[in-house]
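Title: Comparing notes on inverse folding

I've been comparing how different people in this forum approach sequence design from structure. To keep things fair, I'm posting one structure and asking everyone to reply with a full sequence. Here's the target:
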């Protein structure tokens, strides 16, 4: 959710305004996604340690949010480009400010895209393992992925506990999907233009 809130203004700016270096910026979003996070894990560990965020939820949330920013911005900017500019222009002519247009027009119309990016961000954070292994040290703050990893030993695997825990781990994702299924099914501009 934090990632989506931060990416909406950036994606809107990239999709609606023309500025120097725009294509380069979009390509950089894609290039960032090509590199594995393992490349920066040591530097990230040092940075989080200097900020005194090791073994905190805030540190883990911050890292997970940062690593999904580029993809979510790129995805939302592509989605905003599919929305006709005329709808936005009509709102501006009717007296809406740019911010009101984004909040009252663009966000409701782009609900399926927003929901998709929220699901992506949630699943990416929910399934994240490497940063949790690196940044979390206490058992009280261990996320589920590390808990599942504890059932796998060097010579044995506790399959019963691993399977039961994995089943419990997918329940929040299923509940999230059931809550927002309607938004995924709705059309892009279905209710925006009448007639």
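Reply #1:
Here's my take.
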């Amino acid at each position: 959710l934090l990632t989506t809130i931060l990416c909406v203004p950036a994606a809107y700016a990239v999709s609606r305004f023309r500025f120097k270096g725009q294509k380069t910026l979009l390509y950089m979003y894609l290039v960032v996604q090509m590199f594995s996070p393992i490349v920066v894990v040591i530097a990230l560990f040092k940075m989080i340690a200097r900020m005194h965020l090791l073994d905190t939820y805030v540190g883990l949330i911050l890292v997970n949010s940062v690593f999904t920013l580029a993809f979510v911005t790129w995805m939302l900017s592509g989605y905003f480009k599919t929305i006709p500019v005329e709808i936005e222009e009509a709102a501006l002519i009717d007296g809406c400010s740019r911010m009101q247009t984004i909040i009252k027009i663009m966000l409701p119309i782009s609900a399926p895209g927003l929901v998709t990016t929220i699901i992506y961000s949630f699943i990416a954070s929910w399934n994240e393992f490497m940063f949790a292994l690196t940044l979390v040290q206490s058992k009280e703050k261990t996320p589920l992925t590390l808990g599942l990893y504890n059932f796998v030993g060097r010579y044995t695997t506790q399959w019963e506990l691993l399977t039961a825990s994995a089943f419990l781990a997918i329940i929040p994702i299923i509940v999230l999907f059931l809550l927002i299924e309607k938004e995924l099914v709705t059309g892009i501009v279905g209710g925006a233009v009448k007639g």
